[in-house]
UniProtKB/TrEMBL annotation:
Protein's name in the database: N-acetylglucosaminyldiphosphoundecaprenol N-acetyl-beta-D-mannosaminyltransferase
EC number: 2.4.1.187
Stated family: Belongs to the glycosyltransferase 26 family. TagA/TarA subfamily.
Record GO biological process: cell wall organization; teichoic acid biosynthetic process
HAMAP family assigned: TagA_TarA
Native organism: Ructibacterium gallinarum
Pathway, per record: Cell wall biogenesis; teichoic acid biosynthesis
Function comment: Catalyzes the conversion of GlcNAc-PP-undecaprenol into ManNAc-GlcNAc-PP-undecaprenol, the first committed lipid intermediate in the de novo synthesis of teichoic acid.
Record bears the keyword Glycosyltransferase: yes
Single GO MF descriptor: N-acetylglucosaminyldiphosphoundecaprenol N-acetyl-beta-D-mannosaminyltransferase activity
Sequence intervals crossing the membrane: none
Keywords: Cell wall biogenesis/degradation, Glycosyltransferase, Teichoic acid biosynthesis, Transferase
Catalytically driven reaction(s): UDP-N-acetyl-alpha-D-mannosamine + N-acetyl-alpha-D-glucosaminyl-di-trans,octa-cis-undecaprenyl diphosphate = N-acetyl-beta-D-mannosaminyl-(1->4)-N-acetyl-alpha-D-glucosaminyl di-trans,octa-cis-undecaprenyl diphosphate + UDP + H(+)
Length: 241
């Protein structure tokens, strides 16, 4: 049974990274489409302001607390999650796991060519990994059914959807009944990291919960997006009162 905390209307799972991985591994090996989303403060804030998107998130099988701001918010409302569970780390754990057990993954999203590069690099990093197929994230609405068929025909058990929030969550929600994979995960810009186009923060920043600060220093143009964090914290405080 899920144990969650309500943060601005979004049900966030009270889980550790270890438990999240074990649960995701079960999903990959269990028929029926399970869904994992990885809400950070920006995503939770968007859901707070958009009831339709909030409903999409709350129909997932698991929502990990991706972002130290979500962890702090849970503490503010005196219902803390154990720790941050980054979607990227969870995805990496799953890839390592299925590389040893034989399930395959389909990579969907990013610019043309990125998923193919990610495939090559991931297969090198995780010997035994089976990437059943790839498809870029630049498509027209009328091409959606064809993409779903391509994913289904690949025989993949795991689907990574990397279209950015909220597009990826809405895509998964809209196509959940038509997909024949066992687990769908929305993991944002992870394909660009897998492909080597974007570097993740050094271990020091990750361990000190300063990954957001590293990204800001590298991409000051993201200031508008980072502004969502103080807005998120203030909204949590206001709603608590």
């Amino acid at each position: 049974m899920r144990e969650t905390v309500d943060i601005l209307g979004v049900n966030i799972d009270k889980i550790t990274a270890e438990y999240a991985l074990k649960k995701a591994e079960r999903y990959v090996r269990t028929p029926g489409v399970s869904v994992i989303y990885t809400p950070n403060p920006e995503i939770v804030m968007a859901a707070y302001e958009n009831p339709e998107f909030r409903k999409v998130l709350n129909e997932a099988d698991m929502c990990t607390p991706d972002g130290i701001g979500v962890v702090y918010a849970s503490r503010m409302i005196h219902n803390p999650v154990p720790e941050r569970v980054a979607g990227f780390d969870l995805a990496c754990g799953l890839l390592e796991s299925i590389s040893k057990t034989g399930e395959s993954v389909f990579l969907f999203g990013a610019a043309p060519g990125v998923a193919e590069t990610a495939k090559a690099r991931l297969e090198e990093k995780y010997p035994g990994l089976k990437v059943a197929g790839t498809h870029h994230g630049y498509f027209k609405p009328e091409e959606e059914a064809e993409i779903v068929e391509e994913i289904n025909a690949s025989g993949a058990s795991l689907l990574f959807v990397c279209l950015g929030a909220p597009k990826q969550e809405k895509w998964i929600h809209r196509n959940r009944e038509r997909l024949r994979v066992n687990l769908c995960m929305g993991i944002g810009g992870a394909l660009d990291v897998f492909a080597g186009n974007v570097k993740r923060a050094p271990e020091f920043f990750i361990k000190c919960n300063l990954e957001w600060f590293y990204r800001f220093c590298k991409q000051p143009s993201r200031l508008g997006r980072f502004a969502a964090l103080p807005k998120f914290m203030l909204t949590v405080r206001r709603e608590q009162r």
